[in-house]
Each structure stands twice: as C-alpha cells, then as structure tokens.
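Entry: Bifunctional NAD(P)H-hydrate repair enzyme
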Amino acid sequence: MIRIEGQPILTAAQMRAAEDAAIAGGATVESLMERAGAGVADAVRRLAAGSPVLILCGPGNNGGDGYVAARVLKAAGVAVRVAATGEPKTEAAIAARKGWGGAVEAFSEVSPAPILVDAIFGTGVSREVEAAIGLRLGKLVGAARLSIAVDLPSGLGTDDGALLNPPLRAYDITLALGAVKPAHVLAHSAWHCGTVRIIDLGIDISRGGDMVLGPRCFETPGVDDTKYTRGMVAIISGAMPGAAALAAEATMRAGAGYVLLLGGKSPPGAPHALVRRGWSAEALEEKRIGCVLVGPGLGRDEAARAKLYAALASDHALVIDGDALHLLDGRTFHDRGQPVIVTPHAGEFAAMFGKPEGSKIEAARAAAAKSGATIVFKGPDTVIAEPGGHVTVAPGGSAWLSTAGTGDVLAGAVAAMAGYALGRGPRYWVGDAVWLHAEAARRLGGAFIADDLARELSAVRASL
C-alpha cells in the first residue's frame, strides 16, 4: 500500500486512458484485474489479522476485483465469504467469478462480518445507487469492525465526490486502484473514504497532471544570506490592524528575513522585530521587497481601495487576501510581470467568481485560467490552481482551523515563501506555505487560536 502524499490525481477518464495505454502495451483487462485483486487481498489479509472477511461484489469490473481478492485470500487460508448484488456483466468479471469457485451469497440476505470489503461499484458508477442497495450496504458497513472500500466507497462520484448513495457511511480504509481520484481528496467525499492508500497496478499514471500535496523540503539560510535575501515582505495594514499584525507575525515566523508593516497602529504585543512605517504608496517602490501582502483587515472603503490599487501598480509579487478580494472588481492579471496569489475561502470565492460549478478542483482551475492568478481555494481541502492549469490538492485540513485569523496566518506564510523563493514558481512555494500551515495546526491539536498557529510556524520550521 502506498501513501497518497505527492501522488498524481487522475479523473475517471484519465484512469481509463492509463488502463487503455497499458492494454495497448500488452496488458489485458484480466491481467489488470488480477493485479488489482491480488493487491487488495494482500492489504486485506494484513488488516484483517485473522478475522473473517466478507467481500461484496457488484456486476462490473470492480466486482471482478472483489472475486479475485476472495480467491487469493481463500488460498492464503483466510476465512472469506462472497456476496453479490447480481450476476457479473463483463467478460473479465465473469471469468473472475468462475475463478473464485466458491459459494456466492445473495447480497440482500447476507449476514455481517468483522471485516467488510466493498467491491460493488468503483469509478464507473455515474448514477444514483438503488436505495435498497444503499441501505443494505450501510447496515453491513456499520456492523463491521473494519470497513474497506475497493477503489471508492460504492456511491461516490469519482470526479466530484458527489453522494450517489445518500445513506453512504464513512469507511475506515479505501484502497485506491492505481491512482488517487478526486473523490479521495475532496473534503466531504474524503470523509467517507477514511484513510486512503494506493494499490499499485504497474501502469503509467503520469498522464494525470494534478497532484496531492506532498511532504516539503525547506531550505535553511546559507552563510551568505541576509535579512533581505531571506525575503523582504511588505504588509499593508488598514481598518482592522490586528489582522495585518497577525499576518505579519506569521510571515516572520514562516521564515521571512524582513517584514515591513505599512500603515495602521500595531497592536500591543506585536513582535519588536516587526518594522512599522506609515502608509505611503511610495514605500512600495523599495526594490528589495520580494512580495506585498494586502487584504487582512484592510477594510472595504475608498481608502482601502486606494491601497489595493497601489499594490497592484507595484512591480512586486502580490498575495491578495481577505477584504482586498472584494475590491478587485473582476480584475485579471494575465499581463502582470510578477505572480499574483489570491487566497479565498468559499464565500470569497463565490463573491469573486460566482457559485462554483463542478468539483472544487475544476472550479479553482477555471478561476485561475480566468484571472491569471494562482488561486489558493481554502478549506478542509485546500486547492492550489495555477493559470496554466496545474492543480495541487492539500486534503485533510484540521477542522480546528475554522476560527478567526487562521486565513491571515496562511496569507502571511504564503508571502514569506514568495519573498524568498520567487524563482521556484508559485506551485512550489505556495505548496510549502499550505503544508507548513496545516502541519502547525496538526501539531497544535485542538482548540487553538490563530495567534497560537502563527507562533507554531516557528516550531515547525525549527523541527525540519
């Protein structure tokens, strides 16, 4: 089993294309099914630890994978039963059922087992699952000590994570066949998948351009680094200076060498290392500035708009967050020489681009193409989309991040990385910031506030 971090994400169509390419290269549907079933059996055998196993098989090739897994488990001495929703309908699945050779119980009458393996529907399902199947499946999953889905929990839409089986429960483990699918990483469907691991099918999955955010390798300052080469970041303050000060502290603790807070009164307790100056558009003419952050606590009046426009007129990389997102008025950045990063949560995204259509991945991709900016669509699944079409997804964000100010901390971390590593391109340093932010939240556990999160960025960097 392979962890999903850093792995490609394939849609249903891309996965079919990868399988077709493998078949064109000499594989067969049956050989791919054999690999899938054997991989599932190996994982189930280790996870079951000697407990009886029940495998539920559907009529398609996902069911065929289940029959192969049952045959391999039986040969290994595992107590395994098989139940089916109906007769197999594909040639490969028919052959796999014959290969199982054992009894096949009726799905509607089968009794529960400690280990439940769902191989009813996989990536091929695109319509709502019959209510009777969904209800029965839910009861069997609920009765199991350990529930395992083959490729996807039956009733999840592969590409958008839609619930095609409304009573769908959460599984303990999902064994993704060949590659990660969007439903494995999009927040609400990922919850139903539980822990996701990949079963390698030995096929080329490099055609999938999107990726799961993986572990990061952060550079440490070299002997020739200075506060300027480590990244000088200017942060524009506004109507609510506490938000800008919080973002400034996060920027410093994420690794920036010099942070300049422009305008507004710095609240008591702000770090003494933070450089404070009054607001002026001329301050942005400083050539050593690597990135400008505008938006946290900015306000939405004409004074705030003037500050945003001054930032837009500068020749620095920009991180645009919070209030500033509501003042862009549909502006695009295709012709801007330096990168622009916008960091909306769901409400801000809808205000900027309208109600998302399709999956969060496709909505972010379309927004990046339209705006010419790198989109950091925040949430329990943070989607990073570049104007060129590449998408990185960071799944499994801490639910405790749903507290005021954590977005300001993320914006500060993005600005810190931009100020230091502009030459690497947004996908890398934005990914660094998102990973750092999520790791700080993970280490804090629960009931933290944004101030704790900002300080924890230092601890995470120090531990790497």
